[in-house]
Task: structure prediction
Amino acid sequence: LFNISGTCFASLGQLDNAIKGYKKALILKPDYAEVHNNIGFAFQKLNQLDAAIKSYEKAIAISPNYAEAHNNLGNTYKEIGQLNAAIKNYETAIAINPNYADAHYNMGVTLKGLGQFDAAVRSYENAIAINPNYADAYNNLGVTFQELGQLDNAVKCYEKTVAIKPNFVDAYYNLGIALKKLGQLDAAVKSYKNAI
Result:
């Protein structure tokens, strides 16, 4: 009940109240991995990253095959710039659940941040294979293709992004840049206008 209460508060953006609810749940059941994960997520949203890491690690200690906790721990490590630790946690999440699209996506973001563009492409493509309507993955795949100089592939990704999510401003902007580089100025202008 307190976990549900905490989750309700979290969904309303009342993170301090969410944490109070989660802590009450942990008093009743200290080995409740889901609650440790949830409290970690609330701490992460409050930018209390050390507390978030400790909570995720507790969730994982209780339930080592908790893919979501590994993914969330990876996101927290990514936030503090520990990209290799982030990758290790994403790899664990994916090993536990190969169909975890968000873990593949987060792996792609991190690999791209490390300049490992080909590996990032594979991660984004894995995320899209699992979730064909993953607009953020298509957009980031497009950005990665653009950085690799594969402008035609980038354009296809951006077009797919805005087909899935027509109000995705960044994708229209990215599409405009790619089209401009390809010399398709009229199409680039149209895309820029859609971004505004």
